[in-house]
């Protein structure tokens, strides 16, 4: 039969190294479980979403010499629109300036048309367009029935305009 030999000090070093690796892996797994649990609590469960069938178009965009912009919007979708984000910028520019940051007060039922005058007192369009040419972009916002929060739809509609 065989006997268990005592480990010499030379062989004990390998065992303590293995124990340290096992402890390191256990600690890493424990920390990852804690981080995952924390992040799961931070992510909202119900994210507001915009349903298919929301369509807002710009029928016309005109600008006077005094830089007063007038938009005519039409809701061609199947849902009522609760708000509209309006952005103005140079033609072809990807990032445009949001001109109505607060509650827009615009509500459009399906098939409804609205005319929106935007005066230079409310927003100085001249500083965001190149010369007399610009582009206006609208983004519909609806109230999500599940969450009760506003959902900005991904459908954007834009139109070029010339002031003067």
* Principal-axes shape call: elongated
Question: Radius of gyration in whole Å, from Cα?
Answer: 30 Å
Low-confidence stretches: none
- What's the multimeric state? single chain
> How many runs of DSSP E, i.e. beta strands?
8
Q: In CATH, what is the class of the largest domain?
A: Mainly Beta
Gap between N and C termini, in Å? 106 Å
The SSE string, one letter per element, is: HEEEEEEEE
Biggest β-sheet: count, sense, barrel? 5 strands, antiparallel
Q: So how many helices? A: 1
Percentage of residues in DSSP E strands: 25-35%
Helix content: 10-25%
CATH architectural grouping of the largest domain: Sandwich
Structural class: alpha+beta
Number of domains: 2
pLDDT averaged over residues: 82
CATH domain fold name of the largest domain: Immunoglobulin-like
Describe the model.
The chain has 164 residues and is of the alpha+beta class. The chain folds into 2 domains: 10-43; 56-162, Immunoglobulin-like (Sandwich). Helix content is 21%, strand content 30%. A hairpin with a 5-residue loop joins β1 (56-63) and β2 (69-75). The protein is elongated and about 95 Å long. The model has no long low-confidence stretch (mean pLDDT 82).
Name the features.
1 helix, five-stranded antiparallel sheet, Immunoglobulin-like, alpha+beta, 164 residues, 2 domains, 8 strands, three-stranded antiparallel sheet, single chain, elongated
């Amino acid at each position: 039969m065989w006997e268990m030999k005592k480990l010499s000090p030379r062989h004990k070093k390998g065992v303590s190294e293995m124990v340290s690796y096992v402890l390191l892996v256990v600690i890493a797994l424990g920390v990852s479980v804690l981080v995952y649990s924390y992040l799961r609590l931070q992510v909202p469960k119900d994210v507001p979403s915009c349903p298919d069938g929301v369509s807002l178009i710009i029928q016309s965009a005109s600008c006077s010499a005094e830089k007063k912009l007038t938009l005519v919007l039409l809701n061609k979708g199947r849902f009522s629109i609760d708000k509209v984000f309006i952005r103005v910028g140079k033609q072809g520019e990807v990032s445009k300036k949001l001109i109505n940051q607060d509650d827009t007060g615009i509500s459009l039922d399906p098939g409804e048309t609205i005319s929106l005058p935007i005066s230079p007192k409310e927003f100085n369009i001249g500083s965001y367009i190149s010369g007399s040419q610009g582009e206006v972009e609208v983004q519909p916002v609806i109230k999500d029935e599940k969450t009760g929060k506003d959902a900005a739809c991904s459908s954007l509609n834009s139109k070029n305009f010339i002031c003067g």
